[in-house]
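Submission sheet (multi-component)
Chains listed below:
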Amino acid sequence: MARRGAYHHGDLAAAAVDEAVRLIAADPEAGFSLRALAERLGVAHRALYNHFETREALLAAVAARGIDTLAEALAPAADPRSFLAAYVRFALAQPGLYGVMTQRRYDQINGHPPLRAAVDRVIAVALGTLATPGADADTRRREVMRLWMLVHGGIGLHRAGMLRLRPDAEFADELLLIAGIAAAQENTP
Amino acid sequence: MARRGAYHHGDLAAAAVDEAVRLIAADPEAGFSLRALAERLGVAHRALYNHFETREALLAAVAARGIDTLAEALAPAADPRSFLAAYVRFALAQPGLYGVMTQRRYDQINGHPPLRAAVDRVIAVALGTLATPGADADTRRREVMRLWMLVHGGIGLHRAGMLRLRPDAEFADELLLIAGIAAAQENTP
DNA sequence: GCTTAATGTATCCAGTGGATACATAACCGA
DNA sequence: TCGGTTATGTATCCACTGGATACATTAAGC
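Outcome: structure written.
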């Protein structure tokens, strides 16, 4: 975030995003509140408005951060199976953050360049791992979108409790099986 | 439920769900508020608590209503393509309601029998249209879940503005294309 | 018909996002 | 070195929210 000189609080904007991520992770069920965040930062809640126009803007920054973290988690994957497994692992480990990242309105992403850029970064990583190398751009994009839709939709239905799984089934395995990526178990940690 | 005799307001519980659906459809962006609903019903907001333990309980009833409506919209479909097209049409026509239906927590569905029943009703309809008639139960369930995940995930990414579509592409067509249900064909890779 | 439980109202509360007005400290040009 | 401009933070206030408590009303059941 460029060199914002240290002030009262140092770099409140960055600290706010950090702490918000922690706060959301600590209790994914509880709704996110500006005032709870401000209190944790030891600052008047109104101070946050010097860095974020609105609560939604702050959450957009949190989402961008989350998406970048996701991209980092996905980058090492060498094949579709481990890629999707890493995606599911992230979403299940950070349910609150994943919600902030994905349950946004159209404009909140496309009207917010850093967020749009973060999303495109993930798509770029996915293209490298999920798409058929030789194919033309449109086909590759569709391959990626298809798998993304599958895994994202599966996670969403799972979170909502709508999926009927075999009682003993592990969600991630079942999802990959359904997605048609079952196959031999590689080196997934 | 059943025959609650007419009272001051008649059947407030049913009227509340009706009006809530209308309210949410009227402005899908605006957050849903008990007090706005009560005002529309010409009733003290506290009166709603005689019929719904909490705001979430009311929204669960709204979700159940929405899911039933969805099931009705899907029932006439004779093949996977028209089934999925009807599903997408519903989600795009009722974005607010679709959000209430799907963006719930696990317990809110599985701890609420009418909701669970409504979901299972949709699954039953889907099994009749999307699954291969001869196959065994587990396979059929997975076929349904796969398509549901695809279409639900696609809608979610689209709502969030994350999908990169060809500029001229109609979302529904593109989704069916990506899902591998283009015009005349149907298969499972 | 009278009691009783169901339903609705009036009022209060703490918590929320946001606005306005003001205080403070850092930076920059003189 | 200084002094003012500007970024940052605080103090208060507001309308609104979901929910709780206390009370009024009316429909049903004995």
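Remark: Residues 106 and 112 of chain B are 10 Å apart (CA to CA).
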